Amino acid sequence: MASTNFVDYVKTFCRSGAGGRGSAHLHRDKRTMKGGPDGGDGGRGGNVIVRGNRNYWTLIHLKYQRHVFAGDGGNGSEDRSTGADGEDVTIEVPLGTVARDAETGETICEITQDGESFILVKGGRGGLGNWNFRSATNQTPRFAQPGEPRVERTVILELKVLADVGLVGFPNAGKSTLLSVVSAAKPEIANYPFTTLVPNLGIVNYRDGRSFVMADIPGIIEGAHQGKGLGIRFLRHIERNSVLLFLVPADSQNIHQEYNILLNELKQYNPELLDKKRVLAISKSDCADKELMAEMECDLPDIPYVFISSVTGTGLTELKDILWKVLNE
Ligand SMILES: Nc1nc2c(ncn2[C@@H]2O[C@H](COP(=O)(O)OP(=O)(O)OP(=O)(O)O)[C@@H](O)[C@H]2O)c(=O)[nH]1
Ligand SMILES: [Mg+2]
């Protein structure tokens, strides 16, 4: 996923189709001077629909499609012919997309399954033709209903990546490296902060053909919730993960303190993130010496932890075991 191709937020102006007008036609032909009402109904206006498609990973295909208009319904006509229904427009989105109303902020729907669809804006109903209004006391109704008007709505589509495990850590902690060694993903890795600018996903193969999905997101730093670094907008991608894997390098000054800073940033973003199960991985353990590690072990947060090294492979199997266990608890 090249950085510019990852789009996780789009605002789209949606407009449904108007319902067709009902017809107020009165039947006439060669032999009938004064036939009864035979005006047909108008067709329904087109809907704007969102549908989940597992072949999409981002919202990039919607980036430049700022307006979505569904078709209007056709008008009813003589001989009780109903107007054609307006054309529906379907917006295909990746799984994990949330649609919100831009004005009220209210969540309209959440698409998590392939093929799952939801009507964002409903098309107007078609008007009834005069044929429907005939009665004993009014045998020639010269009126019909108009169709319902178009409905407009600005919708925000937001992608929240669906993964089982989300990686949380400071920049340069080794998150991308870990993802690259436990999965087939090829994220960018470099020895400077903020290498990763967009989330990366990888499928981690576990024993017996089982697997889970891991998400690597850009690093967060103290004050990220105030906009420092890349900010915390990427944290929306770990909102859905069931387990958060904290990554703190073994050569950091105080692991517990760094962990608390990360935890606090998550809390500032959304306190519900703290309800998730947490695992701690102390990365780059090949850089620290044994004595130091034993010392560090005395002061670690009270969650499952493991020392790992993505370079030598130490602890990776153990880490997968812990993650799998926590995922299935
Ligand atoms: N010695 C050692 N170096 C590591 C290990 N894991 C990662 N590194 C190095 O640490 C540096 C940063 O690694 P990344 O994986 O890019 O770190 P990141 O957490 O993804 O960083 P950002 O994307 O900037 O947030 C790279 O130079 C890696 O080679 C490890 O287990 N041992
Ligand atoms: Mg990275």
TrEMBL record:
It is an enzyme of class 3 (hydrolase). CDD domains: Obg. Belongs to the TRAFAC class OBG-HflX-like GTPase superfamily. OBG GTPase family. Mg(2+) binds at residues 176, 196. Signal peptide: none annotated. It comes from the Bacteria. It comes from Odoribacter splanchnicus. Its EC number is 3.6.5.-. Its main location: cytoplasm. InterPro entries: G_OBG (IPR031167), GTP-bd (IPR006073), GTP-bd_Obg/CgtA (IPR014100), GTP1-OBG_CS (IPR006074), GTP1_OBG_dom (IPR006169), GTP1_OBG_dom_sf (IPR036726), OBG_GTPase (IPR045086), P-loop_NTPase (IPR027417). GO terms for molecular function: GTP binding; GTPase activity; magnesium ion binding; ribosome binding. Residues 4-162 form the Obg domain. An essential GTPase which binds GTP, GDP and possibly (p)ppGpp with moderate affinity, with high nucleotide exchange rates and a fairly low GTP hydrolysis rate. Plays a role in control of the cell cycle, stress response, ribosome biogenesis and in those bacteria that undergo differentiation, in morphogenesis control. Residues 24-33 have a biased composition (Basic residues). Residues 163-328 form the OBG-type G domain. Residues 18-46 are annotated as: Disordered. This is GTPase Obg. Keywords: Cytoplasm, GTP-binding, Hydrolase, Magnesium, Metal-binding, Nucleotide-binding. GTP binds at residues 169-176, 194-198, 216-219, 283-286, 309-311. Gene3D superfamilies: GTP1/OBG domain, P-loop containing nucleotide triphosphate hydrolases.
